[in-house]
Every structure is written in C-alpha cells, then in structure tokens.
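Methods — Computational structure assignment.
A single polypeptide chain was analysed. Its primary sequence is given first, followed by the predicted tertiary structure written as structure tokens.
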Amino acid sequence: MRNYSVLVRSCVVLALSVGMLAGCSRDPNLRKRKYFESGQRYFEKGRYREAAIQFNNATQIDPNYADAHYQLAQTYIKTQNWPAAYQELDRTIQLQPDNVQARLDIANLLIMGGELKQAQDHIDFVLARDPNSAAGHVAQSNLKAARHDVTGAIQEMQQAISLAPGNANAYLSLAVLQVSANNPDAAESNFKKAVSLNPQAIDAQLALGAFYQQRARWPEAEQTFRRAMSLDPKNPSPRASLARLFMAQGKKAEAEDLLKQSKKDFPENSTGYRMLGDFYFATGDLDKALSEYSSLYQQHANDLQVKKNYIQLLIMKGRSDEAVKLNDEVLKSNPSDGEALIYRGQILLRQMRANDAADVLQQALHNDPNNAVAHYHLGVAFDQMGDLARAENEWREAVRLRPDLLDAYRTLAGASLRKNDWDALAKNADRIISLQPGLPDGYALRAVSEMNRNQNEKSFADLRKAIEVAPQSPVGYIHMGNLYRRQGKYKDAENSFEEALKRDPNAADALNGIAEVCLLQKQPERAIARVQNQLKAQPNNSNFHFLLGALFFNNQDLANAEAELKRAVELDKNNADAVLKLGQVQVARGASDQAIKTYQSYLQNNPRDVRFYIVLGQLYETISNWDQAKEMYQKALQIQPENPLASNNLAYVMLEQGGNVDVALSMAQTARRMAPGSPNFADTLGWAYYKKAAYASAVDLFKEAIRLNKDNPDDPEFHYHLGLAYQKTDQPALARQQFERALKINPTFNNAEDARKLLAELR
C-alpha cells in the first residue's frame, strides 16, 4: 500500500508539473520574451538573419511589443534593409512616442532618403525634450550636411562633442565634415582623436587611412590599413581597403596578390574568399571574375551569395542557359527570392523579351515594393518597350530608394542625352561624380552638358579632370576630341582621338571621331586609309569594319561597302548597326529583295528588335507592298505598344490605303505626343485630321510640319498637303501658292500629277 501511495503521489506531482509546463508554453508573454532573448543572442553574435526571424516571431505573438520592433529595426539596419528598418522604427514610435533613440534612428534613415522635412520633425522633438542631447546634435549635424550647410553641420557636431567628449564616432564625423570643408589639418587631428579614444576600433583606423589615401600620402595610408589588419585579423575589411589603396596607386598586381592571399586566409569567411572575384568584377575583368566564381561555386556550393554572384556574371557574359539553370534552383527553394526574380528579369531583357521581363520584375516589386534594383531593371524593360517616360519614373524611384545606385544615374543621364536635356544631364553627372569621383564617366558626361550649353572652359576643366583621374582610360580623350571638333580645332581633335586609341586600340568612338574629322576637312580617302590602318592591328573588330563600310558607302563605293559590312556581320551577327547599313547598301544598288532577306535573317536571332520591323515596313512601303508594311508595323507595336515611329508609319499606311481613320488618328496622336518635335509626325496627324474633314486643324499641323522640318525644309509632300487643306478651307490663293511651291521643289514628286490638276482647276 505504501508503494502504491508513493506511486499515486508521484503521478499527481508529474501531472501537475506537466500542466504547469503546458501553461508556461501557452503563456504568450513568456513565449515572446524567449523569442526576444534568442534574437538578442543571435544579434550579439552578428547572425542578423536568425536574429530578425526571432524578433519577428516575438512581434507576431504581440504586435504591440515595442522593444521587439525596435530590435528588429536595428537588425535591418545592420543588413542595410533600409525600407524594412524604417517600417519597424515607425511602428516603434507609434507604440512608444517618447522613444528618443528610435526617433533619432528614423531621422537618420530619413536623411539618407532625402526626406529632410520629416527628419527635422523628429530631431526637433528630441532636442525640445533635451536640448543637451549629444545624439540629437549629431542628428542635427547630419541633417545640415544633407542640406549642404557644412558650416552649420560642423558647429552642431562640435556642440555634440562638447556634451559628450568621449564619443569617438562624433570626432570621426567631425573629421569627415572638415574634409568636405577643405580643412584637412583639423580633419586629420580629429581622425587621430577618434583613433586615440578607441584604439581597437578599426572603423576609425580605416577612415584615417582613407584620409591619407585621398591626400596621396600613400605610406601613411598603407601603414594605417596594415595596423587595422593586425588589430582585427579576422575582419576582411582592412584587406579590402588596402587593395583599394594599391589600385589608387596603379598597383593592380599588388592588389591582386593581396586578395589571392586573403582568399587563403579566410577559407570560411564568405566576404573574405569572395573579395578576389569581386575585385576582378570591379576592375572590369569579367573573364577572370567568372572563372573565379566558377571555382568558388565548386568549393562553396551552399553559399547562396556565391551562387547569386555567379549567376549575375553568367548573365553578363551571355551564358543565359547556365544562368537560367542555377537561378531556377534558387527560385525552386524560394519562389519569392527578390534577387533571383531580378536575375530572371535580366535574362529576359537580354533575350529582348521586355514584356515578359516587366512581368517578372513587377512580381519582385509586389513582394518588395522598395527594391531599388528591381525598379532600375523595370525601367530598362520599359525603355526596351519604347516607353521612356515610364522608364525614367522607375529609375527616379530607384535612386530615391538607393541614392548610391550608380547604374540608375547612368541610365537617367542617358535619357537626358536622348532628350537633349542638358540641365538634367548635368545634375545626373554631378551625382555620378559624387558616387565615383575616381572614375572618368561623370566628368565626361558633365562636360557634354557644358559643351552643349557653350560653357567650353568648364567643359575643358571637366575633361582634364576625367583624364587626371583615369589617365589610362580613353573616355576623357574621346570627349576632348569631340569638344575640339565642335570648335573646328581639327588637329587637336585628331590628336585627342589618337591618344584614346593608344589606350584602347578597339575604341570605336575614337576611330569614328578621326573619320569624322577627316570628312569635315573633305578628306574621305584619308578617313578610309586611317580605318584600314587600324584594322591591320585589330582585324576582327566588327565595329571597325562597319565604320569602313559606312565610309565606302558615303563615297559611293557600293561594292567595297557591302564587302566590309558583310565582314562586320560575320564577326558579330548581332551588330545591328552593321546589318542596318548593309541593307541600305543593298537597297542603293537596287537589290531590295536582298535587303529584306538581310533584315529577316537578323530578326531570326533578334525577334524583339523593333527597329528592324520598322525598317522592313518602310522598305515594303517603297515597293508598294502595303499589306506587308502594315504587318511589320503591327509586329513592332506588339513589342513596343507606344513606339512613335511604328505608330506614325502604320497610321500613314492606313490613311493612304483606306483603313479605319479613327484608329489611324489615335495612333498618329500617340506618335505626336511621344515626339512633338518631329515634322513627319505632325504631317501624319494633319493628314488624319484632313481625312476626318477637320480641315482647320489640318492646316495648323501642316504649317507646323513645315516649320519643324529644318533638316529638309523643302519637302514637296508637306507643301502639297498644306495646299489641299487650304483648298478645303476656301483659301484658293494660298492653296495655289503651296501647289506651285511643291512642284518647284520637285516636279516629279509622288503626287505631282495631282498637284498639276488641282492647279489647273484653281486657275
């Protein structure tokens, strides 16, 4: 009985214990706390992905758990997921309006995103509660710096230091401000102060080293970076800084050797063993980068970042089949992986499948609306589709979300060039320079803006800077040659182009510049000879053969032109310029059927290249094959629904062949809206209004077409159309004047007989 009683008591105790444990596991306060503490442990170990999962679990249990929202924000800040960090900080402030640190953190994020008014509101709140908040004055300094008030920013940072003299980061920030204020002596002193306050912190060491590098004090920079390496031998960042120092000195081999050793020294650190491949990528050596990442993928197949970087390189090298296979593996594991969706979009863009790419990229943005890279590539897709306005909107959104996204600024600069918007080009060039002051691109783009605004001295200064920062790059010399050519300084222009070719014997823009200088001096034979000479050194350069073919064509040497252009296409079947020019040569020698075959052959490999459907449509028009012309324009519009040239040409064919006038009018309006400066588009829209019996509107548009037609002011068709419209508006004298003008320009133009009959009636 006694044993039975013990057994019963034991069972009761056990039952109670289990019940208590079950009760604890169901206690949401305890569960959320455990997730929070687990997240803290991961955070302290630098395992931010795991930390984010645990903090997020805590907020799922209790959506009002402010501490978890705040720590989740800190985790996102560590991984540079700024939109998610902002969202969590905003939620923290909603739950804890007096959380000063959360307000300062969100203010700094807002400053990064350019939302300065909102940032000021948070900073004002903090300083109103505590005017002596050192962190508040630091944030105020950051805000003033963003407003380009460097003096005010320095004063605020000095105030912060007076309130918290032991804050090493404040001295570091003050030094950076003093560098921008061109006060290097004070900056150096404060860099050193930051180091002395926290000798073990490598951030201060790296900043001091970067300062020395900027001042070209190479030995001191190297010594500082090596000191940082010894302070934290397990951190690859000092190695990366030293490699950049070597590159700044032109010591590419030393940088490469250092990173090869780093790969050995960090066999388990992803950042460490990836640095060599990233170095090859950054220096433009894509072949070595691809080879390195191929090797890394074999060694670290489970490293997702290695796999993704490898996919990106495969895409860039045109190895789409391999990229698709690896990328599909990533998406199979995680169908919502943003980077993998973007890679799929890039692959589709390279296949000229812009509509499909846009769908995939919009899916990526549905999952992550603040993904700047997805916005950038979606802009590229819209650009391929011929919708430059939507493309620019996406690129602007990309740089709003990621102010450091260089590629987006480059595409915006390219859009500015296409629109001849020189002010916008200058602004985008300024941003490129601020992001990459050591590259020539930004200076060259700004110089283009300046030379088109007749600011030649500024343009020369920027081009000299482009050459100074990258003396081995042809970019600065090419644009310098363009500037000299515009000024009529042909010898100087030619010398600059020759300097560019010394640095890159395959620089097509440089050789083209020399040819243009020769043509401007009416020396076509010398242009041909110079290109032929360059081809002796670079016989497999498709662009050079294209240039030579174009020169022969201009010189009316059709046989040699065709031979060179065929050679250009053999070397690069995707050289669209060469294919287009080859077709023109074939048309010029009366072989339109061959030109059609040439263009159709190109389209077999490039079925999404809209230009070739349009040029085929124009070619079919010349041989009065209206049905085929309509089909080509319709195919172009299937790919780019608002392509202005295809819309205009299809509208004109429909109007000439008795198609639906309302549809033609709509297309003509689209073309005119997309390119208001085109005389042909104005004429087509006028013709549509004429067919709709809206004769007054037609008169206005025909007059506008003639006014805009500066390249060919004596187009007889425009005058003929205007004469018809005048006749319909009961203005016979003006009608007669236009018909006579058209016949005087060209007595045999297409509608010459009709013009003569109408003139006879008017007389």
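Note: Confidence is low (pLDDT under 50) at residues 1-24.
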